[in-house]
Amino acid sequence: xxxxxxxxxxxxxxxxxxxxxxxxxxxxxxxxxxxxxxxxxxxxxxxxxxxxxxxxxxxxxxxxxxxxxxxxxxxxxxxxxxxxxxxxxxxxxxxxxxxxxxxxxxxxxxxxxxxxxxxxxxxxxxxxxxxxxxxxxxxxxxxxxxxxxxxxxxxxxxxxxxxxxxxxxxxxxxxxxxxxxxxxxxxxxxxxxxxxxxxxxxxxxxxxxxxxxxxxxxxxxxxxxxxxxxxxxxxxxxxxxxxxxxxxxxxxxxxxxxxxxxxxxxxxxxxxxxxxxxxxxxxxxxxxxxxxxxxxxxxxxxxxxxxxxxxxxx
Length: 314
Description:
Number of domains: 2
Order of helices and strands: EEEEEEEEEEEEEEEEHHEHHH
Number of strands: 17
């Protein structure tokens, strides 16, 4: 990938101790300046640098940038358009993942935490930060969890609004096997950038949308309820899997913000999905799993009992 002006250099050899410095911002051969006629017009995405644990103290253009914990990703950019390089930094502590904006003040940086996320006993496998539009950046991390079969790898994404006062516009977390794609566009043509997300799991796509409002991003109502209901109508077993992936619960694969996994679904829809799950398990002869599902309060449908009896399950 072609690096932008004043590109971030690779991690240099450590100087020893805790005062290791990772320099950034020195110009490489062949790089152009922002005013170079060879630079294409319009927005050019910028990719930050990622680090392994224990990278030590960072420095940008010779100025030290200290953050609490182990730096895992950094993107140098001029947030306040004062001509000096600032930075967005992702750092890992023993219990938290942190996103900070570091504004340059003289020959040093002043980091300010934008958001924190509990690691829930997981470790950061990799992290990154990049610009995605002229007004937005995306910081993300992939987390690996061990010792818990239910703790699948998961990914967190911070959508960051750039400017003199950068802010986290939304925090999105997903767990395998759900995959998500973010879309940045002005959906309502009001001159402000909105946010979209397409989530894919169990052969289905569910689209979410946020509109930019004076108080921040506001998510449009309707999903995941509409997609889960349609799936239950077409294929009850598949609809039950979709409900488990999106509706609030321990099996949920998605989360907005830092609260519980899953999204709010009407009680009646959750009840219908549980019934469909039990029916599918009984019809497949999975009695133990069906009994486990019944602990969630789902009654056994009559047609499922008939199918189970026909299969020799009593």
